[in-house]
Amino acid sequence: xxxxxxxxxxxxxxxxxxxxxxxxxxxxxxxxxxxxxxxxxxxxxxxxxxxxxxxxxxxxxxxxxxxxxxxxxxxxxxxxxxxxxxxxxxxxxxxxxxxxxxxxxxxxxxxxxxxxxxxxxxxxxxxxxxxxxxxxxxxxxxxxxxxxxxxxxxxxxxxxxxxxxxxxxxxxxxxxxxxxxxxxxxxxxxxxxxxxxxxxxxxxxxxxxxxxxxxxxxxxxxxxxxxxxxxxxxxxxxxxxxxxxxxxxxxx
Length: 252
Ligand code: XMP
What we know:
This protein has helices at residues 5-16, 31-45, 56-59, 64-76, 91-104, 117-130, 146-150, 161-171, 184-193, 212-218, 227-230, 235-245, and strands spanning 20-23, 51-54, 80-87, 108-111, 134-140, 153-154, 159-160, 176-179, 199-203, 222-225. By secondary structure, it is of the alpha/beta class. The strands form 2 sheets. Strands 1-2-3-4-5-8-9-10 form an 8-stranded parallel barrel, surrounded by 8 helices. The longest helix has 15 residues, at 31-45. The mean pLDDT is 95. Bound molecules: xanthosine-5'-monophosphate.
């Protein structure tokens, strides 16, 4: 029987001794250069990665076949792939989007719990779990204004949006949650509230000030890293360093 996304990404992490999800955020004016650069980055860095995350940097300019090829190369290198859509729409649109993402070869999608379940993210969860793929929910982002959204208090039930999103992730059986590396105390709070098999993905390491070691100590399973690796003068060395810094807790 095929493993589900959580099992697949844990296996990739263990076999490469890496908690890094590389954000393939390539900034390149010449569109025809994007796919070859993405492929060469994957080929160079895959021994130090668990997975790659593809965002609008590639999803907007590239077409179906080009993204599918990048996913194939990532899989051939033993990596999982995550589509960073932050999905936030009605069910019929979400369903069309995720069915296309699975056909492109993605293993998981990032979605926004704000939009709710019935008639919205229910379609994403059903489609993903039928295909043994993953849904990762935003729970607390890493950017400076994150508190302006995730920190808001709601009247019913009376709590912060952050706490509500943790509950939604548990009730909806999310495979993973995004909690910024810039707030290790929040990572620790989430870790206490979610099942141990639910993965915590933490972006914001390096350029945004988050610390790999502290995030993992607090409970992060994966570190989403883009510019600290891609813009380094030696990306392989940068990835190896983050692997070392985040090896303080062994992988379950
Ligand atoms: P950097 O270059 O800052 O890239 O390592 C982070 C990547 O993760 C995506 N992403 C987030 N980034 N807070 C972030 O800082 C979040 O909560 C978050 N969720 C996803 C970001 O778009 C970039 O691809």
